[in-house]
Design brief:
This protein is of the alpha/beta class. Helices cover 37% and strands 22% of the residues. It has eleven helices and 16 strands. The protein has a six-stranded mixed β-sheet, sandwiched between helices. A four-stranded parallel β-sheet has the order 8-7-9-10, with helices on both faces. Strands 11-15-16 form a three-stranded antiparallel β-sheet. The longest helix has 19 residues. The N terminus is likely disordered. InterPro entries: BCAA_transport (IPR051010), Leu-bd (IPR028081), Peripla_BP_I (IPR028082).
Length: 394
C-alpha cells in the first residue's frame, strides 16, 4: 500500500512538473479574404496581425506560458463562405479567438457564428457601423474604425457653411453605412448633402454616375464637393478626375486609403479629408517599430491595414495578459470591456457598451512630392478620442 501511494505521488509530481511545458497552445484564427478584390487589404492585415503579436510578446509569441498559434481561413470575399470557415475555425480547429474579416459583408455573416460558439471575434478591419450596431453581440470587439468615426472625421475636414456635397459610394453595407453616418455627421457643420449615388463594387464605367452627380451639384451655390467612399479595386477617383469635374466647379474629396490607391491623389493637390492611418503621422514607440521593421522586412512602409492588423494583435496580447493567459470567453470579455491598449496609432479603448475601439483620426491635406509615388496626406489636425462623439447604435 505504501509503495502504491509513493508511486501515485511520484506520477502526480511528474505530471505537475511537465504541466507548464505541456500547456495548450492559444489558437487564433485569422479569417479574412486571402483571395478576391480585397486581397491587397487582406495581406496587409495579416502581416500587421503577425507583427502585432510579435511586438506585444517581445518576440516570444507566448502569453502566460502558452504558445500563440495562428491559423488562416480564406473567406474568398463570400459571406456564406465566411460563415462556414469561421464555424470550422471555432469548431474543428478549436480556435480560442478569431480575427477578421476585411469585408463588411463577410463580417455581418460572421457575427452570429461567434455568438453561437460563444467565442470572441475581433473585427478588423471591416468598417460598417452595423457590425457594432444593430447586428452586434457581446462576443464582438472591433479594433478597426467604424463608419461613424470615418464620417465624423471627414465631416470635420469638409463641412462648413455654404458647402454642397454629393457622395459616391459602393452599393453594399460599407458604402451605405458610410454615407448614412457621414450625412448624420454633417448636420451640425452647416454643409448640405444634396445627392447620393451608389454603384456596384465591380463598376468599370462611372460616366453615368458622374453625370448624375455633376447635374446635382452644378447649380448649387458656394463650394461644391464630391465625396467618394470606396474600398478595393475599381476606385473611381482617377476616372472621374479625367472627366474634368472642375468644369462644373466640383472638387473631389475622399478619406485615406492604401498607398497604391493614393497614387490617384497626386492629381488632387490640396485635397482635404480624414484618414485612419498614414505611417508618417503617429508618433509613438509601436509605430516607430512598425515602420522600421516593415521597411526592413518588406522594403516598403507599412500601409493602412497593416497598422490595423497590428492593433488587433496588440489588443489580443493585452487581453490575454489581463486573464493570466486564460482563453475563457467570459474572462476575455470582462478583461476587454473598457480596456485601454497601445497600438501604432497610440491609445485605443474598447467602449464597454458596444466594444468599438475608440481611437484618433487624422484630418489631412494632400501634398504632392515628385519623388513620392502617391499623394502625401499631411496632418492638419489629430482628432483625438475626446474630440469625436461617436454614436452608440446597438
Amino acid at each position: 500500500m505504501i509503495k502504491r501511494v509513493a508511486f501515485a505521488a511520484s506520477v502526480a509530481f511528474s505530471v505537475g512538473m511537465l504541466g507548464p511545458a505541456m500547456a495548450e497552445d492559444i489558437k487564433i484564427a485569422h479569417v479574412y479574404s486571402k483571395t478576391g478584390a480585397l486581397e491587397a487589404y487582406a495581406k496587409q492585415s495579416h502581416n500587421g496581425l503577425m507583427m502585432g503579436l510579435e511586438y506585444a510578446t517581445k518576440g516570444t509569441m507566448e502569453v502566460g506560458g502558452r504558445k500563440i498559434v495562428v491559423i488562416e481561413k480564406d473567406t474568398q470575399l463570400k459571406p456564406d463562405v465566411a460563415r462556414t470557415v469561421l464555424a470550422e475555425a471555432y469548431g474543428d480547429d478549436e480556435a480560442d479567438i478569431a480575427v477578421g474579416p476585411v469585408s463588411s459583408g463577410d463580417a455581418l455573416a460572421m457575427l452570429p457564428v461567434a455568438e453561437e460558439h460563444e467565442k470572441v471575434l475581433i473585427v478588423e478591419p471591416a468598417v460598417a457601423d452595423s457590425v457594432t450596431g444593430e447586428n452586434w453581440n457581446r462576443f464582438i470587439f472591433r479594433t478597426g474604425r467604424n463608419s461613424s468615426q470615418d464620417a465624423i472625421a471627414n465631416a470635420v475636414a469638409l463641412g462648413s457653411k455654404g458647402v454642397s456635397i454629393a457622395t459616391l459610394a459602393q452599393d453594399y453595407a460599407f458604402g451605405r453605412d458610410g454615407v448614412a453616418a457621414f450625412k448624420e455627421a454633417l448636420q451640425n457643420t452647416g454643409a448640405k448633402l444634396v445627392f447620393e449615388e451608389y454603384a456596384p463594387t465591380d463598376t468599370q464605367d462611372f460616366t453615368a454616375s458622374a453625370q448624375r452627380i455633376f447635374d446635382a451639384l452644378k447649380n448649387q451655390p458656394g463650394r461644391k464637393v464630391l465625396f467618394v467612399i470606396w474600398a478595393g479595386s475599381n476606385n473611381p477617383i482617377g476616372k472621374i478626375k479625367a472627366m474634368e469635374p472642375e468644369r462644373f466647379g466640383v472638387e473631389i474629396a475622399t478619406g485615406g486609403n492604401i498607398l497604391s490607391a493614393m497614387q490617384a491623389y497626386k492629381a488632387l493637390p490640396g485635397m482635404e479629408g480624414a484618414t485612419y492611418y498614414y505611417y508618417e503621422i503617429p508618433k509613438n514607440p509601436a509605430n516607430d517599430w512598425l515602420v522600421a521593421e516593415h521597411r526592413k522586412r518588406f522594403n516598403s512602409p507599412p500601409d493602412f491595414f497593416t497598422a490595423g492588423g497590428m492593433s488587433a494583435g496588440m489588443a489580443i496580447v493585452e487581453a490575454l495578459r489581463k486573464t493570466g493567459g486564460s482563453t475563457d470567453s467570459e474572462k476575455l470579455i470582462a478583461a476587454m470591456e473598457g480596456m485601454e491598449f497601445d497600438t501604432p496609432k497610440g491609445k485605443m479603448i474598447f467602449r464597454p457598451k458596444d466594444h468599438q475601439a475608440l481611437q484618433s483620426m487624422y484630418h489631412f491635406k494632400i501634398k504632392v512630392d515628385p519623388n513620392v509615388e502617391w499623394g502625401i496626406p499631411e496632418l492638419v489636425r489629430e482628432l483625438k478620442i475626446e474630440d469625436m462623439n461617436v454614436p452608440i447604435r446597438n
